[in-house]
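The following record pairs a protein chain with its ligand, iron/sulfur cluster.
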Amino acid sequence: MEKEKVLISACLIGLNCKYSGGNNKNEKLIELMREKDLVPICPEQLGGLSTPRPSAERKENKVITKEGMDVTKEYKKGAQEVLNLAKKLNIKKAILKSRSPSCGVNKIYDGTFTNNLTDGDGVTAELLKENDIELISSDEYL
Ligand code: SF4
């Protein structure tokens, strides 16, 4: 039987696409590859941002780097690319890295760069949710 296709934040399976140039490798999710066809995506790279890149947080309807640069356009482009891929491959589920301004599900950093969390989704998580894709936070695999 064909395995279920599930989008996954690429940093969770060890790709060095984090803003710092590192990753968030999670052994439980590597293990999950036996059961699911995990499709890695990094919306920030798909939006045209380089790696490494300045850290950024959502602030109201924008995404701003720590140095004050507006990167909303790149974050939105990345989200749209991920949605296009999900539609093309008929993917209905995504496992996304918690707290990220792109991938965070239900809780994200609050835009003050002080490690405070607030209710909300990352830009990509929000768009996928609006398009009825089921989201699972990586925190469920800790
Ligand atoms: Fe990981 Fe998502 Fe950030 Fe890319 S945008 S590094 S996939 S959390």
